[in-house]
Each structure stands twice: as structure tokens, then as C-alpha cells.
Design brief:
One of its GO terms (molecular function) is biotin--[biotin carboxyl-carrier protein] ligase activity. This is BPL1 ligase. Keywords: Ligase. It comes from Thalassarche chlororhynchos. The longest helix is centred in the last third of the chain and has 22 residues. Helix 2 packs across helix 4. By secondary structure, the protein is an alpha+beta fold. The mean pLDDT is 86. The chain has two domains: 186 residues, Bira Bifunctional Protein, Domain 2 (BirA Bifunctional Protein, domain 2), CATH 3.30.930; 52 residues. The protein is built from five helices and 14 strands. Strand 13 and strand 14 form a beta hairpin. The radius of gyration is 18 Å and the shape is globular.
Length: 244
């Protein structure tokens, strides 16, 4: 429905679809996601001019969205230290331990405009099967003696879209350097050592993200190389970057 509507609406009109639960959500690589009540689920349509900073670096969209989700919580006064983080290329994590959300971006180029559909889902209120944002808040209250309130899915969707709008504006004005310092503040990979291809593969260190949003790794004796998410998977449990 939203895929048909997005070409019919006036350019200045925003479009978002929000679901309470989801039985056939799409993930990367053809995966299907089942999302129960208590998750924040939405598909957002935005347009990006091809000849703009972001239009020339479209893979960055997924990083901006992931960062917006984390910021939607950590920019609330008192919630700055809730350990919500981003994992390259498109996941939302509790520390570097558990996934609690993800982002999937589809783009269509028509003439000189990208039409972007951003699929977004993150666990706000379900303790199972892994962990949720409100569990992190409860844990923080217990450890720090605070009384932070639980958050709602609709509040966090609204905050995410608002933060994303600001991040896109910054990126369009300043390019990658306008947002990367903030992204690195929240990502899980700084200085992490990984092996390439398999468990006996060469050792590399994660350096950062290049100007087009691809992961940079430094392999011993070979210098810095970029790794593309479409062809590689980052297995955090085994610290591997492996071909898909």
C-alpha cells in the first residue's frame, strides 16, 4: 500500500505506516520477521535528491536511521546512559550483547529523486525472546537508584522520525563528517578485532566507516579496506566478517 501511495502524494507531504504487530515483516537476505505487540514497527517514506550529499551516499541512510533510534532514547534527559547502541550496518543492540531492533532500506531512483522506504522495528516492551528497551530502563533504575519511566512505542517512533529529520539536514549540509563522530559514540565496534572469512582467517581491526557508509577494516600488512554489507555479514558472536 505504501509503495503505491508514495508516488502519488505531493512532495511536501510526509508518509508513514505504523503497525501494532507484524506477521510477515521483511529482513535482510529474505528473512521474515514476526513482531508481537510491544514493538515499535513502522515504514517511513522520504525523498532524497540524487545530486545532494546524501543522494551521492545513499548507503548512509540505514546508519542515520539506526542512530536516530538510539538517539530517540538517549537524547531524553535522564536516559543518556541507557546502553542502547548501533551495530553496522543496520541493527540496534543492547551494548554488544543482544539485538533488539533493525532497519531495512529500499530505494527507487526516479529521474533525479530517490524514493526511500525505511522499514524499522525495535523491541520496546517484550522481555522475550531477548530483551527490550524498557528492560534496559528497569535495569538502569535498579543499578543507579533512578526512577526513569518506561517508554512507549508510539513515543519512540515519533522521536525517531524527528531525530532522523535533523540528522538528514546535518548530513546534507556537512556530509559524513557532520554525523560520524556522533555515530561512533554509540556504535559497538570501536577497536574491535575480527577475523576475515573464517575462524582461521587473517586478523583485522575495525577502523570506522568510509565516505560511502561501508565498514573499514585494517588487515595486518595490507592497510585499510572497505567491506560492503551486501556481500558480507558481520557475525558478532564469533567476531567474523564472512562472505554471504
Amino acid at each position: 500500500l505504501i509503495g503505491r501511495l508514495m508516488f502519488e502524494l505531493p512532495e511536501e507531504m510526509g508518509l508513514i505506516a505504523i503497525a501494532v504487530q507484524q506477521t510477515q515483516g521483511k529482513g535482510r537476505g529474505g528473512n521474515v520477521w514476526l513482531s508481537p505487540v510491544g514493538c515499535a514497527l513502522s515504514t517511513l517514506h522520504i525523498t532524497i535528491p540524487l545530486h545532494s550529499n546524501l543522494g551521492q551516499r545513499i548507503p548512509f541512510i540505514q546508519h542515520l536511521v539506526s542512530l536516530a533510534v538510539v538517539e530517540s532514547v538517549r537524547s531524553i534527559p535522564g536516559y543518556e546512559d541507557i546502553d542502547l547502541r548501533v551495530k553496522w550496518p543496520n541493527d540496534i543492540y543492547y551494548s554488544d550483547l543482544m539485538k533488539l531492533g533493525g532497519v531495512l532500506v529500499n530505494s527507487t531512483l526516479i529521474e533525479t529523486t530517490f524514493h526511500i522506504l525505511i522499514g524499522l522495528g525495535f523491541n520496546v516492551n517484550n522481555s522475550n525472546p531477548t530483551i527490550c528497551i524498557n528492560d534496559l530502563i528497569t535495569k538502569f533504575n535498579k543499578e543507579e537508584g533512578t526512577k526513569l519511566k518506561a517508554l512507549t512505542a508510539d513515543c519512540l517512533i515519533a522521536r525517531t522520525v524527528t531525530v532522523l529529520e535533523r540528522l538528514i539536514d546535518i548530513f546534507q549540509e556537512k556530509g559524513p563528517n557532520g554525523v560520524l563522530p556522533h555515530y561512533y559514540k554509540y556504535w559497538v565496534h570501536s577497536g574491535k578485532q575480527v577475523r576475515l572469512h573464517n575462524e582461521e582467517g587473517p586478523i583485522a581491526w575495525i577502523v570506522g566507516i568510509d565516505d560511502y557508509g561501508f565498514l573499514q577494516v585494517h588487515e595486518e600488512g595490507k592497510g585499510v579496506e572497505s567491506v560492503h554489507p551486501d556481500g558480507n555479514s558481520f557475525d558478532m558472536l564469533r567476531n567474523l566478517i564472512v562472505p554471504k
